[in-house]
Specification:
The chain has 3 domains: 154 residues; 148 residues, no CATH class; 99 residues. Helices cover 70% and strands 1% of the residues.
Length: 430
């Protein structure tokens, strides 16, 4: 297998606690299956799930959807190449066998992938793509892989397992639980694990600062799995009438919560993403969509754990909550301190007050700005830039007034974070 036989781009390493870790063959096989499953979900809706509502571009121009699909195909190409290269050794070949595939089956898959990529690269040279052309490409994609055994085996990886991606503490609680509630959760929880594992791919992309529009395909598969999860939970509710009220309430609340968060992600954060050009906006909206789904699932799983141990909390199950709490506490205090300095400088814009504010803003930019969601950092940075370059009091005061109003809103939003629920704000005494 040569690099000329299949388009190859570097496979990004996984980041664990800030350390770059190379993916194992097992992980690469899973990720390859995840991208293929995501692409299939994306194409099943003709790529219109995240359509450009209100866009001025012609409705039948689908070149952007093609380019999103092309980015995913290139990633699949890279993963397949690295799996094949690694599987030439006996130890790594066993990892491939665990996925139920042979080396020859994967080679057959790469041949089909190469054909689709060549066609996609050719179509990508055009400035536009009609609906008919887009549908024809989707049909070619489906037909080319219809009789490729590795394609189905790879995509199946995403819809099985899941337990290994749940907190060990939660698995242990369920394992030692009593009664029918235990068996119910043993069938429900893996579905949450599968979705969290898919979302982790997006988290890795955010951490590695990779191009993020292809993540729409992962979100497509996540959306599909969440809808199946909601249907499954509602079915369990209907079949469990007369069962433990706490159990019914917990899965009913879970179904409602994930449906609300999914609507936010599809209708707000990811709507029109294929047409967005600024990379900062793409990053901000992807980060927000990822956080909404991941944190809501973590809170739901914490609620499930309380069915077995009322004393357990999110911090025990998910270490990232501890880090988020620490950051949120620091962020809240810093924002409030800056708000006081802004109000002081607005009412008395003397050199001493403005110098004190400027110093605090520069310190904040170095130490705490990264604790905000990316969509808020741009606005904050613009205000800081305006304040630092403005010298005339008559020009500075209106800026400070607007900045103060923005900070009050931002402070309120931070104070509403779920990790701060048990940590009421203590006002800074002047």
């Amino acid at each position: 297998m040569t690099e000329n036989e299949i388009t190859s781009i570097p496979t990004p390493p996984l980041r664990v606690a800030g350390v770059r870790v190379r993916l194992s063959v097992d992980d690469k096989v899973y990720q390859l299956g995840a991208w293929l499953a995501g692409l299939s979900s994306f194409l099943a809706g003709s790529g219109l799930t995240y359509g450009d509502r209100g866009s001025i571009r012609p409705y039948n121009d689908h070149i952007r959807e093609l380019r999103v699909a092309r980015g995913a195909l290139q990633r699949c190409s890279s993963l397949a190449f690295h799996i094949l290269a690694a599987s030439e050794s006996e130890d790594e070949a066993s990892d491939l066998a665990r996925a139920g595939m042979s080396f020859e089956e994967l080679r057959e898959f790469t041949g089909a992938l190469r054909d689709v990529l060549l066609l996609t690269d050719s179509l990508n040279r055009a400035e536009s793509m009609t609906l008919t052309e887009w549908q024809a490409w989707c049909k070619v994609f489906a037909e080319r892989f219809s009789d490729v055994s590795a394609f189905e085996k790879l995509t199946t990886q995403v819809d099985i397992g899941g337990e290994q991606f749940l907190p060990e503490k939660l698995i242990s609680l369920v394992k030692h639980g009593q009664g029918t509630i235990r068996s119910e959760f043993e069938t429900i929880l893996p579905r949450f694990g599968r979705i969290l594992r898919l979302l982790n791919i997006v988290g890795e992309m955010l951490a590695s600062d990779e191009p993020l529009k292809p993540a729409l395909l992962i979100f497509s598969k996540v959306s599909e799995q969440i809808q199946e999860l909601i249907a499954y939970l509602n079915n369990r509710i209907e079949r469990s009438r007369g069962a433990d009220d706490d159990f019914i309430s917990s899965i009913d609340g879970a179904a409602y919560t994930v449906s609300i968060e999914l609507k936010k992600v599809i209708n707000q954060e990811l709507a029109g993403m294929t047409s967005i050009r600024p990379s900062t906006t793409v990053y901000a909206r992807t980060e927000s969509a990822y956080a909404l789904l991941t944190e809501s699932f973590q809170h739901i799983l914490t609620g499930f754990a309380k069915q077995f141990d009322q004393k357990i909390d999110s911090f025990e199950l998910f270490p990232n909550f501890g880090e988020k709490l620490e950051r949120s506490l620091k962020l809240r205090n810093e924002l409030y301190a800056i708000l006081l300095l802004v109000q002081k400088a607005e009412h008395d814009p003397e050199t001493k007050n403005t110098a004190e504010l400027n110093k605090a803003l520069l310190r904040y930019m170095d130490e705490a700005l990264g604790f905000l969601f990316y969509k808020d950092t741009e606005t904050f940075e613009r205000f800081v830039e305006e304040i630092l370059v403005t010298r005339q009091k008559k020009d500075l005061v209106p800026i400070l007034h607007r900045f103060g109003a923005y900070l009050e809103t931002l402070f309120a939003q931070v104070n509403m974070r779920s990790v701060l629920e048990k940590y009421p704000f203590q006002h800074i005494k002047s």
